[in-house]
Amino acid sequence: MPKRVDHRERRALIADALMRVAAEQGLEAVSLRHVAAAAGVSSGMVQHYFRTRDEMMTFALAVVRDRNEARVTRAIAALGATPAPRELLRTMLAELLPLDEERRADGRVALAFLAYTAVRPAVAAALHDETAGLLDFIAGLIRSGAGTTVDPERAAVGLLAVMEGLGIYLLGGHYPPETALAALDTQLDLLFGSENHTS
């Protein structure tokens, strides 16, 4: 009787290899051949699951997104049933920063993917809805906790840009995690005030 193939397991094996190659060598090193070698399978098997390099890149970013969502969900659940908007936002953004080795590996992949999409508008289009949804969520938290003196949409764009910039500098080793978190807290204090700052 022929052996039954677990496609989900194989795809996970290839995805893990893809993430290792991307995190250790950069996205420019990601190819069918390199991923196949890292996974210990044939190039043909990799091509069975990913027909093009763009498909592999998009999948790598989806893996990073899923990992980030899981981390954020766990951290927010630990806050209890009704966290304050500032506390919720701070927790979410801090979890997205590359503050430990696991998040640095994911951050390197995400950063390389953004550079990759800069010259591939069709691939970048997949990110537009995700970014818009994140901005809407952040704006909603700012709206509910920061008062009426702040434009929530513009503040959300600025805060997301600060978080992304902090992430880039952390990945480059320009300063330690404590400095990035202090900078994030300063930005949140400007929006929400510092009197209820508990972080």
Give a structural overview.
By secondary structure, the protein is mainly alpha-helical. Helix content is 75%, strand content 0%. It has nine helices and no strands. The chain has helices at residues 7-25, 32-39, 43-49, 53-77, 85-96, 101-117, 121-145, 152-171, 177-192. Helix 4 packs antiparallel against helix 5. The longest helix has 25 residues, at 53-77. It is elongated and about 60 Å long. The termini are far apart.
| Ends distance | 59 Å
Low-confidence stretches: none
Describe the oligomeric state of these chains in a short phrase: single chain
Mean pLDDT: 85
Total count of strands: 0
Features:
single chain; 199 residues; mainly alpha; 9 helices; elongated
